[in-house]
Amino acid sequence: MIAYSVRRLLGAIPTLLVLVSLSFFMMRAVPGGPFDKERQLPPEVEANLRAAYHLDEPVYQQLGRYLLGLAQLDFGPSFQYRDYSVTELVMTGFPVSLRLGGSAMLVALVVGVAAGCFAAFRQNSAADHAVMGAAMVGVSIPSFVVAPLLILAFAVHWHWLPAGGLGGGSIANMVLPVVALALPQIAYVSRLTRGSMIEVLRSNFVRTARAQGLSPTQIVLRHALKPALLPVVSYLGPAAAGVITGSVVVEQIFGVPGLGRFFVNGALNRDYTLVMGVVVFYGALIILFNLLVDLAYAWLDPKVKLQ
Amino acid sequence: MPARAQLKASAIAIVAAAVTAAAVTGCDANGGTPVRIGGATGRVLAAHQVLHLGNGTEIQTLDPHRNEDVSGSNVLRDVYEGLVNEAPSGDPEPGAAESWTVSEDGKTYVFALRRSARWSNGDPVSADDFVYGFRRAADPKTLSAYTFILSPIENADEIGAGRLPPDRIGVRALDDYTLEIRLANATPYFLGLLAHSTTYPVHRASVEKYGIKFTRPGNLIGNGAFRLDEWVVQSHIKLVRNPYYWDDPHTVLQEVYFYPTENVPAELQRYRANDLDYTYDISTAQLPWIKREIPDELYVAPYLGSYYYGFNTTKPPFKDNPKLRRALSLAVDRKVIVEQILGAGQPPAYGWVPPVHHYEPQQMVEASWTQEQREAEAKRLYAEAGYSAENPLQTELMFNTHEDHRRIAVTIAAMWKRVLGFEVTISNQEWKVFIDTRTQKVATQVFRGSWIGDYDDAFTFAELLRSTSGQNDPGYDNPEYDRLLDAAQAELDLERRAELLEQAERVMLADMPILPLYFYVSKHMIKPWVQGRQSNIMDHDLHKRFYVLEH
């Protein structure tokens, strides 16, 4: 397994190189540059700025310089947030996104799987339709609707929870953004769980277990859950990477300083280095999570062999 | 801090705050009745003097010489102090300098610095600190985008272009507390520029020690009423009182928080949940609700900004075609735009320069007409320019993507269709793409534009349309206009100078390279317990003047 993981991680390097180069050129191909402002810069200052950020060099040289820095985990200076390096910004944004996204994924997994199993066991009953209906609503209502509604109810109307901000990292400040992030994930996870659980419950080994007189709880926990989780796990990898690197909408509405906000503001400001930094970080995270998913697969399903 | 110690500390704070507030006897948010602390009005200072402010976009930098943004300036005005501050009237008032004298030719300023002024680490603020600051700001290596603020100072432009070393700037210390600034030409608005962050002093030892990191909490040493305590990018900036500040005994607030709030509707939610005391902005869509539900907390005031549509005068159909440009301008009913679409009390604009100091606002001749008369004139001019129902004008109106801009564009397109009978193509672009397109003057025909003045003087607007200006997106080129601006710049007499600038605006309005639409207003939601606000027309304020009532 270790040899397999090392092989996979080494294989990720060319993928990341392609990702970096592509986004490097795409970013620069977009019209408008980091120094385009309503008030134009004096030509001398613009020339100095371009030189300070090495924008006056040929593009391939810039890319080489960037890759060299990347090899030393140096993402370069931010164009917009001038007092900070991109590495510093990513490192301030990531823990926040990780905490929020990680909590949201955990909530989604626990609640989603439980709801999915519950519905599968009562297939086509009123309870099943209620849970799945709720899930359908959860999938279809976007977070830019859910988040303000949550604030309106819990912060503005009842004053139970703060409407936004980090609040020094207190739990109260995390509740609403975590719920807003988790709701659509709960919906997806419960639908996936229900679907695969129904399939597993029809399989021969579950029928055998039933014939042996095991209780439904025992059947689910000991036999059915593991195989039923396979599609959930394969969904979870990229979803976790997405949620952890931040949801722009939720971060903006709650004023949370996560990675997603850096990404979008970086793109709007043409902050080349910041966008690149987040892209590389996101790319690496996706690769890592996909690897974890494959490892989890091998553990969940004895038919899968890691090669 | 243990509970008991905390209690004691806050008790001391209450007493101190009450004493200082009683000493200042501040005015309420609109400069109305004086507050009697614990007196007949029954208003009492809050125990915790903390202000939570929405501050728009995340700030770029806390380096005063490299800052370009309004949000950054809001923080910098608290952390640093220039030679002068802006009084609520907009006039300069003593800041780090106690007094000053100006030579008869208007070219030499001598400032007497406050001997009691201190940096936030206790070091005295000396004339040398200012000399260092001016040299650093002018040095092209500092990468300041606002060096034009220094432009009136002797040699500043030469230094900016790299032709002279920074120490040749016309600023020197006559002694520890006397600073002399020599100008290249007399500049009547020069004192006003000295409240701009580009002219702030910086603490030399910490800049040299920490380099780019001198703006971090712990490293940043300022000379303002507050000092930087925390800065979490995209989360908040926390300032606390600077006990060494010369006017600290008159400062009431203990802490000021700035939150980046680029999502304007979300900012209002945080305000309603009492997380914020003061919003940076208000979205047009939410105004009707605010006016209905909490009108007393809405504060709207004139703001130094002009919203306009530019005509690309370097290409047909608008090149050499003032009749067509005027026809399009007269066909627009500005009252509908400001009342039906915007609704915050923006004044309709029939001229270019918003109300500023020492300047008589100019308007196009037709400003006093009724809209019917204007429309009749518009039709006449449109026909004279050679257009008709059979041969309608074909043109495109471009704006940067934003809901308000879209609604204004759609309405104006309908007005043009109704009055002149042509259909304009409407298109929008993302902001950075848009400014790029606009500057190139190739693809644009009619485009949205706006300008916020950098200082309280007509010149900050007038210079935009000079033929050589980098911001002259309409490509306006009238030698008479340029000549009048040159003459105004050389003029020492304030009244004569204003007349020249007014004349220039009249020349420009007759040519109509731009279609003025409305003047900006500043709009904020402010909690009733926030007092002491005295913003000027640039919406600048000092939080050392604020205090918070019990709530």
The total of beta strands of chain B comes to: 17
Provide the CATH architecture of the domain at 302-522 in chain B. Roll
The major sheet of chain B is characterized as: 5 strands, mixed
Helical/strand content category of chain B = alpha+beta
Helix content of chain A: over 70%
Oligomer: heterodimer
Strand content of chain A: under 5%
Structural class of chain A: mainly alpha
Give the overall pLDDT of chain B as a whole number.
91
The shape of chain A is globular
Count of individual helical segments of chain A: 13
| Corresponding CATH superfamily of the domain at 302-522 in chain B | Dipeptide-binding Protein, Domain 3
In CATH terms, what is the fold-level topology of the domain at 97-266 in chain A?
MetI-like fold
Give me the number of helical elements of chain B. 16
Under CATH, the homologous superfamily of the domain at 97-266 in chain A reads MetI-like
Question: Which CATH C-level class of the domain at 97-266 in chain A is it?
Answer: Mainly Alpha
Number of strands of chain A: 0
